[in-house]
Amino acid sequence: MEFACCWTKKELAPGDCPNIGEGEEELLSAHRRRIVEKCVECPLFTDDLLRFQESGHPLSEIFPIVINELLDLKSQLQSLGGFLNSKTREIKFLHELSLVLQTSVDLDEVLSVAMTAITAGKGFGMNRAFLLMADKEQQALRGYLGVGPRTMEEAWHIWEDVNQSNLTLRDMARLFQKDKLSSEKVKFNDILERLTVPLSEQQHVFNRALRQRKPILVENAFSNPDIDPALVELLGVDSFLVMPLISRHRRIGLIIADNCITRKPITNQDLQSMETFTFPVAFALERASLYERLQVEIDKLTVANSKLKEQQELIVKMEKMALVGRITSSIAHSIRNPLMIIGGFARSLLKSIEQDDIKRNYLETIVLQAKQLEDVLEEVLTYSESLHPALDAWDINQLVSRVRDELSGLFAQHNVSCVLEPESELPKVSIDYRQISYCIKTILTSALGTITGEGKIVIRTWRDDGVVVVTISDNGTPLPPEMVETLTTPFIVTQELGTGIGLPLCKIILEKHGSPFIIETSPEGGTQYIIRLPIKEGM
């Protein structure tokens, strides 16, 4: 009997069998494999089998049975092979997922991995997923994150990008965290805001899933009396999966997953696969949340420790300053009495001595030097009393005007004009009136020392961002930076200004008032002194 199929030939030449394609050339000489893989499904073989049955051969009835059994076994093997491949991919995927979830303490990374795993084709392949987190303070489940496309066009773009890239789950999650995490929250913000369910609503499907501690597959949602119609309308799907996230006995939240684009049915196999996924996700979310809260507490403790260290340094500094204050006060009082006696006797003798007496120059020198020593003692005593300012509400314009008037004679003596440019209706400032008066007076006196010949000093006041600013500008010789540092160091000798603690004391007083003491070159030339005083609350 002549047969049309090539199954009777042990070896074939290229082109003898139309079913053998490129890359399958080994089947040309593999007779047994060719019969099993190609011939049994070839139309020519079916024709040969039919002719064999018509021949009346005793085996003609057996052959069709054997062939059908072979085809059934082949189909089962192909199905089993596909199932094994699917399970292999799933095991590989779960292994990769578990490695990330077990090692990461970054909440955003855990969320990115979990939500990517649900929606990626290499993962569970759901179209869309929403994460709800349990809010203990509000006793409610609140929408936290949504992932997936909202339109078919967007879905095609996502699937095309995924197909073109050969990324692992972790790489996909990192890209999602870097490029899309924030935008996905915004994209689904309208849905997330409405996905809030009180934990007290025991019959709600979300709370039922948490209470039963297992996933719930919701089907026929639009006609299901056990499902809240508002939730179904919000999701817009007839079938969705609710997966509780529970770590030990703590309710972390839950995940909602659906196929809003493809409308592909969610199977029990999908449910079982996702159920193995929820526990490591819940545990990772709990750990990452605890780590995040721990970091917040650590940051708070770090700030508190820094403030405590600053307070300790301030206490030590204040103790040292208080000790210096007591010493200087004691020394000043010890010197003051004999100095006043010397000065007093010298002034008395000066009144009774003739103008042309040669001793008059000596007495005048004694009076002048005694006066300078009294001024230094006054500064020392002021220094010892400057540690604790007595704050009250004062009008800074009135204070500056009064100090300027007190020094009017000194300005006239040096041929210097002092102009006051106050801003009207300034709020009152919280200051120690006596100490700030001393600062203004000292600054004006120091400014006089830099002016040679006819000069000008301008005092301006204005309001600026919660403080009142006082600037004192002169047209004298500008002070170099090293001189500015010197002038704010106690008891430093300068050729131009002598020895003292006037400006250093001003710096200490202003720091006690919460104001830095700024000395800089004036835009108009000369030197500018800047004071920023806090406004009295309620003014």
Poorly predicted tracts of residues: 491-500
CATH architecture of the largest domain: 2-Layer Sandwich
For the record, the CATH class of the largest domain is Alpha Beta
| Class computed from helices, strands and strand pairing | alpha+beta
Number of helices: 17
Percentage of residues in helical conformation: 40-55%
- Form type: rod-shaped
Radius of gyration over C-alpha positions, nearest whole angstrom: 46 Å
Strand content: 15-25%
CATH third-level topology of the largest domain: Beta-Lactamase
Largest sheet: 6 strands, antiparallel
Average predicted local confidence, pLDDT: 80
Strand order of the largest sheet: 3-2-1-6-5-4
**Full CATH superfamily name of the largest domain:** GAF domain
Number of strands: 13
Structural features, described:
- By secondary structure, the protein is an alpha+beta fold.
- The chain folds into four domains: 81 residues, no CATH class; 204 residues, 2-Layer Sandwich (Beta-Lactamase), CATH 3.30.450.40; 76 residues; 143 residues, 2-Layer Sandwich (Heat Shock Protein 90).
- The chain is built from 17 helices and 13 strands.
- The strands form three sheets. It has a six-stranded antiparallel β-sheet with strand order 3-2-1-6-5-4, with helices on both faces. It has a five-stranded mixed β-sheet with strand order 8-10-11-13-12.
- Helix 15 runs antiparallel to helix 17.
- The protein is rod-shaped and about 170 Å long.
- About 2% of the residues have low confidence.
